[in-house]
Q: What sequence folds into this?
């Protein structure tokens, strides 16, 4: 049938299971609903901008949108999957769809624009187009043509030329939630008869960082090994360290046992692990430990009892110092020609932090805290106590991840990460505070970019909200 034939003509999982209909797009409900409504009402804009991280369904959605616009079905769901136009789309020979990248020439556009009743151009990586490009000069001309629709696709919305941004209807594609990616991987594994552990699928989802395409690629690479897909196999493929080994290394480093620290670091490096990956993992682990400790303390406070797993103020301060050290060292290791030396030196510095001799009870707390919920960063972190230092560290890393210099300056000089709270569905809500109402309005234009930066730091789905500080200016 329509769906089966479309999925048997290619070899990769991403192509074999590429979405054919709007309802197969994972985790982009708002964007999909908007496009379905536009197709149903035939109220089509000439220019669209699909913005979001890679692997979140932007290009697939553009292809489905093109098929829906040209579908010959008189009523019902579009694309219908059975008409002549849909058949061309499924086979990859749709005359009405042209995919270009940021360096495509305008000559190609002129040549192909008249070949279909409603031509759709999907321009990938449109942020690479130069403001002086002749391609952009054609936009105003095609704006008057009802027979052409442009879908601009980007993973870097801040650097899209103003000539495009100002004309487009923008749809934001966020990172896909873990549940959505996991559900798709489970279905593929069942259909393909993969021998895979459920815990291994969870780990694949975690490493994919909200990208369904990356998750499918990882799963396919593992399946080609011809072995049962387990957590150790995933770790080996991704070049990462298991949580157990990571926690053990952190405990040894912070116990001031220099000899054992050097031995363990050499063992890791000799196994081919990237030191920047280990440092990043350790920083994430510390965030998990601090967040879990706050949850334990909050639960104990509500029940009017003490929790032996809650870390003391001194222990939390030491972990905050360790987080700061790891964050700074990661930058140096990334650019250093002596990465192994930098990595070992960083671990030894952890043992020199104030109060770094780790007692047995402290080690038990670390293990128990991370074991309670490693996937969650925080139920509620606010600006009080040691949470403030953690929020500041997260905010600094977020600013460094921003590609736009204008946004970096705005956040650095005027913004503050006020709180992070956990809501249902694994979504984190981050509140960014500004003292000035006008600056708050400016920051709201960058909500998508701010959320993306926070997601790359916390590796969770983020909803960013801009708020006014209590001491805000009223003018």
A:
């Amino acid at each position: 049938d329509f769906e089966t034939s479309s999925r048997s003509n290619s070899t990769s999982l991403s192509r074999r299971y590429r979405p054919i209909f709007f309802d197969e797009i994972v985790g982009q409900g708002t964007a999909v609903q908007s496009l379905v409504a536009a197709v149903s009402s035939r109220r089509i804009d000439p220019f669209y901008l699909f913005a979001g991280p890679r692997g979140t369904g932007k290009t697939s959605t553009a292809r489905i949108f093109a098929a829906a616009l040209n579908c010959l079905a008189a009523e019902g769901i579009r694309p219908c999957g059975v008409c002549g136009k849909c058949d061309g789309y499924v086979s990859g020979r749709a005359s009405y769809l042209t995919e270009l990248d940021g360096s495509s020439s305008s000559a190609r556009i002129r040549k192909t624009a008249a070949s279909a009743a409603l031509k759709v151009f999907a321009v990938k990586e449109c942020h690479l187009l130069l403001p002086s490009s002749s391609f952009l000069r054609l936009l105003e001309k095609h704006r008057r043509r009802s027979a052409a629709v442009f879908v601009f696709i980007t993973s870097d919305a801040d650097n899209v030329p103003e000539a495009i941004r100002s004309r487009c209807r923008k749809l934001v594609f966020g990172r896909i939630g873990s549940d959505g990616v996991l559900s798709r991987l489970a279905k593929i594994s069942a259909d393909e008869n993969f021998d895979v552990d459920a815990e291994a699928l969870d780990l694949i989802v975690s490493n994919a960082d909200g990208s369904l395409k990356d998750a499918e690629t990882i799963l396919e690479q593992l399946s080609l090994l011809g072995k049962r897909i387990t957590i150790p196999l995933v770790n080996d493929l991704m070049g990462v360290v298991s949580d157990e080994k990571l926690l053990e290394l952190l405990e040894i480093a912070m116990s001031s046992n220099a000899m054992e620290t050097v031995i363990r670091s050499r063992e890791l490096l000799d196994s081919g692990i990237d030191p920047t990956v280990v440092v990043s993992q350790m920083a994430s682990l510390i965030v998990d430990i601090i967040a879990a400790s706050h949850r334990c303390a909050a639960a104990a406070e509500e029940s009017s009892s003490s929790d032996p797993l809650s870390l003391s103020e001194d222990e939390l301060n030491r972990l905050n110092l360790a987080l700061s050290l790891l964050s700074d060292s990661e930058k140096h290791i990334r650019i250093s020609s002596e990465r192994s030396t930098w990595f070992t030196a960083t671990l030894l510095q952890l043992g020199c932090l104030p109060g770094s001799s780790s007692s047995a009870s402290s080690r038990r707390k670390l293990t128990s805290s991370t074991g309670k919920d490693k996937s969650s960063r925080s139920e509620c972190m606010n600006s009080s106590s040691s949470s403030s230092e953690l929020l500041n560290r997260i905010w600094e890393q977020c600013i460094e991840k921003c590609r736009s210099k204008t946004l970096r300056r705005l956040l650095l000089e005027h913004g503050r990460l006020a709180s992070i709270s956990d809501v249902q569905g694994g979504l984190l809500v981050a509140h960014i505070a500004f003292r000035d109402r006008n600056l708050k309005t400016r920051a709201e234009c960058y909500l998508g970019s701010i959320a993306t930066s926070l997601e790359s730091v916390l590796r969770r789905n983020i909803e960013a909200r801009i708020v006014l500080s209590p001491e805000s200016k009223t003018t």
Observations:
- The longest strand covers residues 462-473.
- The beta strands are 47-51, 97-100, 119-123, 148-154, 169-172, 380-381, 416-422, 428-436, 462-473.
- The longest helix spans residues 275-302.
